[in-house]
From TrEMBL, chains A, B:
In-chain residues carrying the UniProt-annotated modification N6-(pyridoxal phosphate)lysine: K193
Names of required cofactors: pyridoxal 5'-phosphate
Function of the protein: Catalyzes the reversible conversion of 3-phosphohydroxypyruvate to phosphoserine and of 3-hydroxy-2-oxo-4-phosphonooxybutanoate to phosphohydroxythreonine.
EC number(s) per entry: 2.6.1.52
Family membership noted in the UniProt record: Belongs to the class-V pyridoxal-phosphate-dependent aminotransferase family. SerC subfamily.
Top-level taxon of origin: Bacteria
Location in the cell: Cytoplasm
Predominant place of localization: cytoplasm
Protein name: Phosphoserine aminotransferase
Length: 356, 356
């Protein structure tokens, strides 16, 4: 039985992506070679990389606006370091919004570089909301935020208006909703939610913000180096990039971000409505900041846990245990999760109510 | 028709690895989930990571000798940076052996940290041999070398005896030959030759050499951080690690390094014998330093190139064009390349001789 996979990441990808990726491991593009054994310099793979980069700009409506796209290795956690290396001036400073575990990881790496101003934080409330009304110092080299907080189930709905370059970690909600992406100067995202399998990081950078730090940047951390080499400064993660291309092609085919956004909103509405309606459950995140990707909720009475856990497992659901720092449950509803899977979870919640 | 794949990397992997990897994308461990959609914290994947790390120590005969194994992202090029960050003291220095393009990449990153002494170089002879008789300063924090030079077809046969910790980039010949691996203090290797697909880097480090620099090391670059988190400081490249495990299991099954070494020597002997015998060809690298992984050779008469290229392509051979910095041909004979593929190439070389 195919599972209803609510894993927070790595997470479900479209079934047709699994099938095409599986096939390409046996015979890629009818070449007689596996996608795992071809040179990254081969004509076929160069075409994959180019199409993936160009599809990113098309889907985000960023074509012809001075952005460069990279597919690198290292995860968002390596970008926590690359960002200050490339953007924080010697004796400069950066502004960070502290909305959770991953924002904190980014802050820690930035602090080893220079002055890191935390302009807002919801740490005291265990990150159950997004700080608002914060001020970004006008002399900051950049402002860094995390658009969606997987662990806590919060999501930034309104991004600040500022003249300071905006850097955004969109690992867990990129390609899920319509935004004016041209308001961002640098976007990065680990692939393992809406892009592809774990093992590559998507970086979209407005080229004009680079080269201004007077800092000595190691080659492997230098965005400009990777731009010049078209993401092949060193051997790229061929399979992860190929599978990301398959996922982007699927997204384009079903209608792009505006189409998936409607589906995502439908899924989120179905689940949050049940969380709010069902007397056994309560949501964790502030309503106005609820993520459409990750819904966090708890049972009001912990004694119901054993029965509920048995019931959702029997229904074929997997991956809805909450993160240890929040507890309870977390239902991650990334792009590829079908509406039917959400219906199954909601049915189990209703059945629990009927049984108790 | 299945190709005879001589690609320099990413390169051929065992056919059974392709088949198992392909299957795991549809249904991993009969879980009803794809290997691409499971959490890296799931019991099944934690078991994969643990078995992969333990098999590395077993195959290299390093069990119980104080070594830690990591599977990270970033490729060997990121290790060029991690190594000085973790091992070069503030005001310290490191010794490097310059044997080619990749050694040079490592040297460039080290230079941004501190004094980097090049103890030997064959650059003036286009890296056609391995420098010998070099001295390693006794006060160097470490000595760095590249065991096999993919582009130039040279390989270090005798490693220096020194009290300085030895760091070795074994990207293109790890698991191919018997060595006393306990002579090395840190070994790293991009997976995409003898380990698995592009997208993960294997690092084997003697834990006692860490923590001695007094340097502020960013978390993502800190080996100790990754050791503590058992390669899960951030999301690991799940599929690349799993496929690496499959390749290591295959290597163990066929008899480990001593068994594959005999096969590799047989393949190299067949090809080098023909290069030396056939009056149309000549080898590029000095005979005593010839790599058993990558054989570089040229046609004595460039006019024969068109015919030769047509002939090997017709025979189903791919990936033997030389790197642009050497020209001619490069036959990469990694662990998974069957002896029959070498025989096919040698037959084409003989046929060319007969035709001319």
């Amino acid at each position: 039985m195919k599972k209803h996979n609510y894993s927070a990441g790595p997470c479900i990808l479209p079934q047709e992506v699994f099938e095409k990726a599986s096939q390409a491991i046996l015979n890629f593009n009818n070449s007689g070679l596996s996608i795992l054994e071809i040179s990254h310099r081969s004509k076929d793979f160069v075409a994959v990389m180019e199409e993936a980069r160009s599809l990113v700009l098309e889907l985000l409506n960023l074509e012809g606006k001075g952005y460069q796209v990279l597919f690198l290795q290292g995860g968002a956690s390596l970008e926590f370091l690359r960002v200050p290396y490339n953007l924080m001036k010697v004796e400069g400073k950066a502004a960070y919004l502290d909305t959770g575990t991953w924002a904190n990881g980014a802050i820690k790496e930035a602090k080893s570089f220079g002055e890191t101003v935390i302009v807002g934080s919801s740490k005291e409330e265990n990150y159950n909301h997004i700080p608002k009304e914060y001020q970004i110092p006008s002399d900051a080299n950049y402002f860094h935020c995390t658009s969606n907080n997987t662990i806590f189930g919060t999501q930034i709905k309104n991004f600040p208006k500022t003249n300071v370059p905006i850097v955004c970690d969109m690992s867990s909600d990129i390609f899920s909703r319509s935004l004016d992406f041209s308001n961002f100067d640098l976007i990065y995202a680990g692939a393992q939610k809406n892009i592809g399998p774990a093992g590559t990081t998507l970086i979209i950078v407005k080229e004009e913000i680079l080269g201004k730090t007077n800092r000595n940047i190691p080659n492997i951390l230098n965005y400009q180096q990777h731009i010049t080499k078209e993401s092949m400064y060193n051997t790229p993660p061929v399979f992860a990039v190929y599978t990301s291309l398959l996922t982007l092609q699927w997204l384009k085919k079903i209608g792009g971000i505006s189409a998936i956004e409607k589906i995502n909103e439908t899924k989120a509405n179905i689940l949050y409505s049940e969380i709010d309606r069902n007397p056994l459950f309560t949501g964790v995140a502030s309503k106005e900041d609820r993520s459409i990707m990750n819904a966090t909720f708890v049972l009001k009475n912990p004694e119901h846990q054993e029965l509920f856990d048995t019931m959702w497992k029997e229904a074929g659901i997997s991956g809805i245990n909450g993160h240890r720092s929040v507890g309870g449950y977390r239902a991650s509803m990334y792009n590829a999760l079908p509406i039917e899977s959400v219906q199954v979870l909601v049915n189990v919640m209703k059945e629990l109510e009927n049984k108790i």
